[in-house]
Specification:
Its cofactor is FAD. The structure is a single chain. By secondary structure, the protein is α+β, with helices and mostly antiparallel strands. It has three domains: 125 residues, Orthogonal Bundle (Butyryl-Coa Dehydrogenase, subunit A, domain 1); 108 residues, Butyryl-CoA Dehydrogenase, subunit A, domain 2 (Beta Barrel); 146 residues, Butyryl-CoA Dehydrogenase, subunit A, domain 3 (Up-down Bundle). The chain is 50% helix and 14% strand. It is built from eleven helices and nine strands. A hairpin with a 2-residue loop joins strand 2 and strand 3. The two termini are 37 Å apart. Bound molecules: flavin-adenine dinucleotide (FAD).
Length: 405
């Protein structure tokens, strides 16, 4: 394990160069190249995404026009060390997820599904040949991925209850079943489908290519959170997939856990970004909004909320930094990622609520951005394992006793 107790050499960079909401200067842990990347992501999100995203959110549309710009940032599969992948490590990957969510949690989720869940399935569960085939075009975002695990009748209990079936017929597999909530699915080029092998009852992963006969979608309507993300129900009716598209190293449900451990950290970072964005909007607003002849930021009770928000953001960032360092050192356990996800999402939910509070009535108007972050936080709170599920994972680790059923 490398020495992770010392700050990187940051040359002439001063603590003040970090935005105010990075109160303890965590970004200074990154080397210069990674800080440059973070700044490019910040610039793209601020200039290209923030001015247009409320319109897409209202219309529940995905901004396909922004994909080339996201691709040019080179952040898809940022942490993975696979063919064509950037291999930049977990810490900068997490900070980039935070940076995306700080402006827009939907874009962060789109990237998390494509670059985290879908690319992660190929990287962690695919053969060398499959990695060579799919990862380089996915890293360039020429092929977009989705990840289909959850089903209409089973979410938290998916490990035992996964019902989508896979039956081998010669050099092909036949998939039947239903999936729900699958981000990017309706426009993805590659959909990773997790299904139970009828022969040995083990869960296996299959990469189903766009246009495969028997796979149809119903885009989910009327969401009150992450409206930009296109979630779909997937219907699989006798879908034939070649053996060459079965992820060769996915042998049981445990394989999905290997992917989710990493992506759950990404969601912890997203939650911190969502909270951080809300804090920044709130701070700016309270310094300009005047009541009783003074900026509302001058009132003690408003400062109390601002400082509590900053405390939440800073505590979550600290926890996530350490867990990402463990991930880079190959030491991250399921319970570490679960603690970070549960903690960061609870703290996010508090922080966005306080931000909304200090904006008064304007807190529910999309134009001030905080309202969108409040709504989007609700989805982040539930996906990639609810607070209860992640708590039970940590509870089992610290007591040695499983309380799941
Ligand atoms: C916006 C969004 C995007 C998503 N994207 C994807 C995706 O791309 N791919 C994918 O596969 N899935 C995706 N999901 C699914 C997501 O992972 C599930 O919603 C999540 O796992 C929870 O499952 P559920 O919604 O079925 O809730 P349920 O499992 O029905 O849980 C309902 C409530 O019961 C609680 N509960 C359940 N069991 C217990 C227990 N033993 N003890 C205590 N409490 C319990 C839960 O914590 C929760 O509060 C997405 C979900 C959302 C909302």
């Amino acid at each position: 394990m490398s020495d992770i107790t010392e700050l990187q050499d940051v040359g002439d960079v001063e603590l003040e160069d970090s935005p105010l909401s990075d109160f303890l200067g965590f970004e200074l842990l990154l080397d210069e190249e990674d800080r440059d990347l973070l700044l490019r992501v910040r610039e793209f999100m601020t200039r290209e995404v923030e001015p247009v995203i409320n319109g897409y959110w209202t219309r529940a549309e995905f901004p396909h026009d922004l994909v080339p710009g996201l691709a040019a940032l080179g952040i898809a599969g940022l942490a993975y060390d696979g063919p064509g992948c950037p291999a930049r490590g977990a810490l900068v990957d997490g900070m980039v997820a935070m940076e995306l969510a700080r402006v827009d949690p939907s874009i962060a989720t789109f990237m998390g599904v494509h670059g985290g869940l879908a690319m992660g399935s190929v990287q962690l569960c695919g053969s060398d040949e499959q990695r060579e085939r799919w990862l380089p075009p996915m890293a360039r975002m020429e092929l977009i991925g989705a990840f289909g695990l959850t089903e209409p009748d089973v979410g938290s209990a998916i490990s035992a209850g996964l019902a989508t079936s896979a039956r081998r017929e010669g050099e092909e597999w036949v998939l039947d079943g239903e999936k729900k909530w699958i981000g990017n699915a309706a426009f993805a080029d590659l959909v990773v489908i997790w299904a139970r092998d009828e022969a040995d009852q083990q869960v296996k992963g299959f990469v189903v290519e766009k246009g495969t006969a028997g796979m149809t979608f119903d885009t989910q309507q009327d969401k009150i959170a992450l409206r930009v993300v296109q979630n779909a129900e997937i219907h699989l009716r006798g879908v034939r997939v070649p053996e060459a598209n079965r992820l060769q190293r996915a042998t049981s449900f445990r394989s999905t856990a290997d992917v989710l451990r990493v992506t759950r950290m990404g969601v912890a970072w997203q939650a911190t970004g969502c909270a951080r964005g809300a804090f920044e909007h709130a701070l700016r607003y309270t310094k300009t909004r005047e009541q009783f002849g003074k900026p509302i930021a001058s009132f003690q009770m408003v400062q109390d909320l601002l400082v509590k928000m900053l405390g939440n953001v800073t505590a979550s960032t600290a926890m996530n930094v350490r867990a990402s360092q463990l991930q880079d050192a190959g030491l991250l356990q399921d319970e570490h990622a679960s603690l970070c996800k549960a903690h960061s999402t609870v703290r996010m939910r508090e922080a966005v609520g306080w931000a909304r509070e200090v904006l008064g009535g304007n807190g529910i108007l999309l134009e001030h951005h905080v309202g969108r972050l409040v709504a989007d936080a609700e989805a982040i709170y539930s996906y990639e394992g609810t607070r209860e599920m992640n708590t039970l994972i940590v509870g089992r680790a610290i007591t040695g006793l499983s309380a799941f059923v």
